[in-house]
């Protein structure tokens, strides 16, 4: 859910951030918002206390979060605001309702202009996920399939959190004699770098590994090796795939060939 929210709501998030920052700057400049603290400055011809506040920093954190939370309730200017999210729309606890939802999923696939796959590493190892792709391509050949790896939004979230954490730390370190002192500020920068860089590098490396795994899984795809907890479900899905594509081998070839290139 967070992946979808960030993917479609980032423009609203960015607008809310810009508006919040601008409003805080104007109100602080006009003296409407009071300064919270001050730091000591010793320049060439100036020595004294410089007051400064935390309002821009706070709105830089809260405004984009508020914009992201408000986004689902805003009217869409283009496209449809309706989606079928299988994990949410199909009951996962009641067996009868789950089977009813699975039987009706074909109608949603046929009527959908786009199938968005929130891809993670185990995706192509789940037979039901593979079945959805097979059904969508058969029932809606003109529809668009979009592979959206969720690690992109994970990287964006981590970057946002680390930047704001560094901003708060830097703000607190500025207090005190001579603006916190050069040694203290340097220590803050070094500590932030030692924490933030490995975290973001780890996400970036995982992104590369997951992308390589996706390419490898597509190149070596074999429907007979895909996992399914129920033998009955496995047989039903295999029968449906054979009816649609002629054979399991033909379906696997589509994954490794034309279907892969469309992704």
Question: How would you concisely characterize the structure shown here?
Answer:
The chain is built from ten helices and four strands, in the order αββαααβαβααααα. It has 263 residues and is mainly α. The strands form two sheets. Strands 1-2 form a two-stranded antiparallel ribbon. It has a two-stranded parallel sheet with strand order 3-4.
What does this structure look like?
The protein has 263 residues and is mainly alpha-helical. The chain folds into 2 domains: 1-80, no CATH class; 148-262, no CATH class. It contains 10 helices and 4 strands; from the N terminus they run H-E-E-H-H-H-E-H-E-H-H-H-H-H. The protein has a two-stranded antiparallel ribbon. Strands 3-4 form a two-stranded parallel ribbon. Strand 3 (114-119), helix 5 (127-139) and strand 4 (144-149) form a beta-alpha-beta unit. Helix 1 packs antiparallel against helix 2 and helix 5 (127-139) runs parallel beside helix 8. The chain is elongated. The two termini are 22 Å apart. The model has no long low-confidence stretch (mean pLDDT 79).
């Amino acid at each position: 859910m967070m992946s979808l929210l960030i993917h479609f709501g980032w423009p609203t998030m960015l607008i809310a951030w810009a508006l919040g920052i601008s409003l805080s700057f104007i109100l602080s400049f006009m003296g409407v918002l009071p300064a919270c603290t001050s730091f000591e400055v010793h320049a060439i011809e100036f020595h004294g206390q410089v007051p400064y506040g935390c309002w821009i920093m706070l709105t830089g954190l809260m405004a984009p979060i508020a914009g992201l939370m408000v986004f689902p309730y805003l009217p869409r200017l283009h496209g449809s605001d309706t989606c079928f999210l299988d994990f949410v729309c199909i009951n996962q606890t009641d067996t009868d309702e789950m089977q009813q939802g699975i039987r009706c999923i074909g109608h949603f696939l046929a009527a959908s202009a786009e199938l968005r796959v929130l891809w993670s590493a185990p995706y192509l190892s789940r037979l039901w996920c593979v079945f959805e792709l097979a059904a969508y391509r058969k029932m809606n050949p003109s529809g668009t399939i979009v592979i959206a790896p969720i690690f992109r939004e994970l990287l964006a979230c981590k970057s946002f959190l680390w930047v704001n954490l560094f901003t708060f730390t830097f703000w607190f370190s500025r207090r005190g004699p001579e603006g916190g002192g050069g040694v203290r500020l340097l220590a803050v920068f070094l500590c932030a770098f030692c924490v933030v860089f490995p975290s973001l590098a780890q996400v970036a490396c995982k992104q590369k590994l997951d992308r390589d795994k996706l390419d490898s899984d597509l190149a070596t795809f074999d429907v007979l090796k895909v996992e399914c907890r129920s033998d009955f479900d496995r047989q039903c899905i295999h029968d449906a795939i054979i009816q649609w594509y002629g054979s399991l081998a033909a379906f696997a070839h589509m994954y490794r060939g034309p279907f892969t290139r469309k992704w």
